[in-house]
Structures are given as C-alpha cells and as structure tokens.
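A quick aside before the break. I want you to see a complete sequence-to-structure record at least once, exactly as it would be stored in a machine-readable document. Don't worry about memorizing anything.
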Amino acid sequence: AAGVGKGTLYEYFESKEQILAGAALYQVGMLLEDMMRYAQQEDLNFFGKIERFLCSLNRHTAARLATAQRLLAAVPGGRRCSTPAAYGPRLAEYTAQLNGLLEQLVEQGKAEGVIDPAHSVEYCGFCLNAALSHYSAALCMEREDGLALWPMLPENARKRCAMQMLRCALRPQN
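That is the input. The structure line, written in tokens, reads:
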C-alpha cells in the first residue's frame, strides 16, 4: 500500500507496533496542525472553531480509516501495544500543544460568555474530549459484515449532537 517492500519498511521500524505508533502519531500531528490553524482564525467564535475541528476530524478519519483498520489488524492477536519509547518526546510535544490549545479555547469561550467562568480548564477539557470521542466513535462504527455505519448518519447530525453536548455541559449557570 505504501509502495515500498516489507524489508525496506523494517529498516525504519523494528516492529509492527512501531509502525502502528508511528502512523498514529503522524495522523495526530496532521490533525493537530489543522486544529492549530483553525484556532488562529480570529474570525471564528468558540463554537465555530469546534465545528471546524469536527470537520477536520471527519476529513482525516474518512480518508484514513481503512489504513488504520489494516494497521490495527496487523497487531498480533489484537493485543494492545504501548507507544515505543522513541515516540515519547513527540507525544509529549503534541500533548503540550493540545493543552495550550485547550486553554486558549476555554479563555475564548469564557470571554464570549458561552462557557461558565466557574468551569475549570480541566472540566472543559473533559467535556471537549467527551464530545470529540462521541463524534469519533460515530465516524468509526462498523458492523461485523464490514459495512460502515457512520455514512448512514449525516455529518450534520453527528456535528449537531457533539455541539449540543458541549453547549449543555459548558453553558453558564444562571
């Protein structure tokens, strides 16, 4: 699929787990780039940025779902694999960037009056993570016969559901 032989691939990676971790980190990096670009757009309000994040997540997932499934299937016995130590620094860098992005978004949401000022960044992060996880799960659902279910639920419906979760969880209490 990559246009290189198996031997060539193993010159760069020691195991299937390393290939999987490398591919996953690459995808996270691509998604993070999109999110950072949207976060810098001053013409977008809080929910406008979240909506762009969801669209980006949809685009990345749809384009790479089959590849991710093939990589996951290659891990022997479906066992969980830990992230190789070599990827720790990049993962820590991505985590720091995401945390910074979250803080920026929460500040913007509070300034716009759509997030209760009493909510902590940690709470808002939990809510955002729950909404994105819900959205991601809807994207990746697949039946046993291989028929993907997520195209059956229109993107707008998935987006509305995730956005409503956030609005309810973050809204200021009167």
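Two observations worth writing down. Confidence is low (pLDDT under 50) at residues 143-147. DSSP finds six helices and no strands in the chain. We'll return to this after the break.
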